[in-house]
Amino acid sequence: MSKTLDARGLSCPQPVLITLDEIKSTGASDLLIIVDNEASKENVSRALTNQGWTVEGVEEDGGDYRIRAKKG
Amino acid sequence: MRIIRMVCRAACRHVMAMQVDRRKGNSIQQGKVDGMKNVFATRWGIIGVGAAIGVLAAALQFFGNPANMGVCVACFVRDVTGAVGLHRAAVVQYMRPEIIGFVLGALGAAMLFREFRPRGGSAPIVRFVLGAFAMIGALVFLGCPWRAMLRLAGGDGNAILGLAGLAVGIWIGTLFLKNGYSLGRAKVFPRAAGWIMPAIMAGFLVLMLINPAPLEGGKSGVLFYSEAGPGAMFAPLIISLAVGLLIGFIAQRSRFCTMGAIRDLILFRQMHLFSGAIALIVFAFIANLAFGQFNPGFEGQPVAHNSHAWNALGMVLAGLAFALAGGCPGRQLFLSGEGDGDAAIFVIGMIAGAAFSHNFGLASSPAGVGPYGIPAVIIGLAVCGIIGLVMKDKAKA
Q1: Hey, are the CB atoms on A17 and B34 less than 8 Å from each other?
Q2: What is the three-class DSSP state of A70?
């Protein structure tokens, strides 16, 4: 069961900050991050990739982006 | 020229790729959108955008903009403030078409790529105050981060102090961010709300066309035009506007941000935006050499003073305010073009800050720091420090 982070409405750099916090503090191995703009989608995806995570897919859902990512 | 061609070619590829994606995307609205690769958001994309801004800024100087001020978002917003008479510093009044172009170019990019998203409501009054103090700090140094980089690329050694101060201010901002600082979530606004800032800018352009610059400067209808000083130095309207639109477009696509460049480096050890800022400096430097605009030194630099401590501390204030607001002045303009009401409020705050700066004698001049510049920076640092400490997102706690 992957944990969901809701970063909608948050402005740069907070979506990235809460994503990295989650990765570092809980040792989660898969995550679903919801953002509501392209820039946050790109930033979160880039930060995950830099952490050695794999972005498995991004779904667009009524203006939101649901980023599914996995460790490794 | 080569770099401009490269960027244009990349833009065309980008548009074509988007159209293909859109055709495919219609049938799978809910499906994957990974295919929508934004070339401007790649490493080479951001470097290309930084390089283009550097070259275009140097070219604008060649065509008439003030020295080491091809593009300065803080200075130009200040000039716009003067053009509509909100301050009466006679040497810095001009309706800068670059600022209008930034917002409208970003609007165009956002519309074309379906990123126009009217939103806001994330502590607007705090953003207004941050915008005002960001401007006050920037005008003590005499430039926004863009101009700090352009000054460095033009040989102005005083810019090193400004950039160092900027980095310290942003570093303080990252400490607050790590400590849970947040201005809260923005909400989706009615679509029409996103048009307010672009409409204001379009209105400014119309005013400028109705009241064109008199040959000798002075008042033209409702607008003020400087007769001398930096406000009387400008590239032809059509060139300024075209460059503004182009920069607005590519900066919206690439999310170019000079504050973010330093912040992401400190906070995430990430080089992405930073590589764009470095490209701006390097390419502006090369272009300045080509145009014969490189004059190294600390003394007698154009529209600059060499009071080292206040060059640095002015930018500490500006950097902290940008970091707390989430973007440098340029980025705030581009976001306002995307319909971001919070960024628009920051811009209005910058206009108010510019008016205070010149009406109260807070702004520096080539003669040195203004009579009340020092207390203004100290008050600004205290206010931004308190904002950084007390603003937390309740939902997150």
Answers
A1: no
A2: strand
